[in-house]
Design goal:
The chain has about 240 residues and is an all-alpha fold. The protein has ten helices and no strands. This is TetR/AcrR family transcriptional regulator.
Amino acid sequence: MAETKKAKKKPESVWTRPARAKREQPSLGREQIVDAALELLDAEGLDGLSMRRLGTRLNSGATSVYWHVTNKDELLELALDRVMGEVRVPAPDGGGWRDAVAGYARSLRTMIHRHPWTVPLFGVQPMIGPNATRVLEEVIVAFDGAGLTGMDLENAMSLIADYVIGAAGSEASWQNTRDAATGEDWLETLAPYLAEIADRHPRLTAHIRDVWARETADVLEQRFDYGLSCVLAGIEAHRPR
């Protein structure tokens, strides 16, 4: 018997769903719903958001919420696009494309630090909301002068985004789960353990003692700037000549 081929599910997005007639719209607006969702997400992360909790927070029945979004995935699309509105991309004037792209990278990083719940959402859905498309259009313009088109441009844009999302996500996780403990705090806690492993791993323990004795914020800034400069240099080196 021939195996039945499973039908491929058509991708869906809140941005492509046809708008409903205004006369049917409840008093509760989409902006209010996204505002409440962001409050939950910023306070408790992705696990803190549910349609039930959102309805309770809004003092509204599920009907009003589901009029605007059919499920949590659509709600997250709206929330992600809302915070993408915080990202700024400098025009490539004066300093050239590298300064403009670096400005975008730092702005994206700042947004992720404010909203670390965004990290797992990047790449789940195409970024096609109004704020995201504005940012992506400006990033393409920021790369003017680099001489990149087609897949070369796509690869460069993806490389910048992947670096920032990875670095900022890791930084946010560290800062949010360590209760603002400094490197020196950790050195004090780890001192007996480092002494125990020093004979087996002398280079590592010396490195930890050196780096963690520094101000944590300064280490994170230097690390991010170093990585970003390496990424930009790599893009420069691979530009078509």
